[in-house]
Amino acid sequence: MKTKIGGKELIEEAAELIRKGEVVAFPTETVYGLGADAFNAEAVAKIFKAKGRPADNPLIVHLFSKDQLNKVAKDIPEEAYILIDIFTPGPLTLILNKHPDIPSITTSGLNTVGIRFPNNELARMLLSKSNTPIAAPSANISGRLSPTTGQAVYEDMDGKIPMILDGGKSQVGIESTVLDLTKKPYTILRPGAISASMLVPYLLEVKNFKGEVKVAASPGMKYQHYAPKCICVGAKLQDRAIMHYKKIANDKCNRPVIIGNLNFIKDLPVNIETLSLGDSVEECMSSFFDTLRYAEKKYNYIILQNFGDFPDFFSLNNRIEKATSHIIV
Ligand code: TXA
Ligand code: MG
């Protein structure tokens, strides 16, 4: 299959593809999504196939307007409407009770559904013009780094889907916060740019999911995620990162790099290869996946700063822990 890639000029064609039951990749403010008509089981099956996604990992249903809520969910709690007013369109996914019209493949047989209103011009145009809720996971091959540029989607999806809408770089850069509103206490199943402390004024109580995922609360949590193709380990301290780098660099086959925020890498010795994620937490989130995609091509051993001691970096560190398989040197 030939994969077309382009911007706004392709929007009518993209919407037509969605209506016809095809798959289209599109930008969102978090990461790129791989979308199909959420009500069309055959179309949704094509998403699982293109990604190589396990059938028990449910998809998020993307919406254009609040009128669509009652078509995809039922018994919606009052808090959902409040959060939607305050935080959306934006990087927040709410888990609600599923409407029976949503085919079970979309939610992997769960009786709940994740919904989100993306805040990206092309995503909103696609949702509005195709006139249907769009089911979409991140547009990477299953287990790979999430894509934050059209080019990154192209690397993973060329030849597998008919179209990629390219809207440039995703602003937020890590996937949406997933908040379960189907039972109390309300729980963040996946941390993202909207944190527990931002949500608590509207919910009274919200907790971050902790512990090991056996029967997955959010099935995606039990799968390996966001992993670069090469070895990737974490380091909390610069000295430890340098020591490990030097040890690794002794073997001439290794091409190591240290990746961290500006503060972490700015004083490292000049003979050490480094990549900066940026300064603020927002900058670091926004550049994270793209920097890892760049690094895994140029290097074969990544030493990644672990931000476990910095509460502001909680959500980004969740992705870092996954990329490094929780290894700290
Ligand atoms: O920012 C995002 O959320 C991006 C963009 C494209 O919207 N999407 C995304 O989708 O990251 P995906 O499929 O890569 O991750 C969705 C996560 C998975 O961990 C999945 O298990 C969880 O949300 N999820 C989806 N529906 C769920 C449900 N009904 N109950 C619990 N977890 C659910
Ligand atoms: Mg994903």
Bound molecules: threonylcarbamoyladenylate, magnesium ion
- CA gyration radius, whole angstroms: 20 Å
Fraction of residues in β-strands: 15-25%
- How far the N terminus sits from the C terminus, by CA atoms, comes to 44 Å
Whole-number average pLDDT?
95
Explain what the structure shows.
With 329 residues, the chain is an alpha/beta fold. The chain has two domains: 4-208, DHBP synthase, CATH 3.90.870; 231-323, Threonylcarbamoyl-AMP synthase, C-terminal domain (Rossmann fold, 3-Layer(aba) Sandwich). The protein has eleven helices and 16 strands. The strands form two sheets. Strands 1, 2, 3, 4, 5, 6, 7, 8, 9, 10, 11 and 12 form a twelve-stranded mixed β-sheet that branches. The protein is globular and about 60 Å long. Residues 137-138, 146 line the site of magnesium ion. Magnesium ion binds next to loops.
Task: Describe, in short, the structure shown.
Strands 1, 2, 3, 4, 5, 6, 7, 8, 9, 10, 11 and 12 form a twelve-stranded mixed beta sheet that branches.
Which features would summarize this protein structure in a list?
329 residues; alpha/beta; DHBP synthase; Rossmann fold; 2 domains; 12-stranded mixed β-sheet; 4-stranded parallel β-sheet; globular; binds threonylcarbamoyladenylate; binds magnesium ion
Topology, element by element:
Layout (H helix, E strand, L loop, with lengths): L3 E3 L4 H9 L4 E3 L6 E5 L3 H11 L8 E3 L6 H4 E2 L3 H10 L4 E7 L13 E5 L4 H10 L3 E3 L13 H8 L5 E3 L11 E4 L5 E5 L5 H8 L2 E3 L22 E5 L2 H12 L6 E5 L1 H4 L8 E3 L4 H18 L2 E5 L8 H10 L6
Parallel strand pairs: 1-9, 2-9, 4-7, 6-10, 11-12, 13-16, 14-15, 14-16
Antiparallel strand pairs: 2-3, 3-8, 4-8, 5-6, 6-7, 10-11
Helix pairs in contact: 1-5
The structure holds threonylcarbamoyladenylate and magnesium ion.
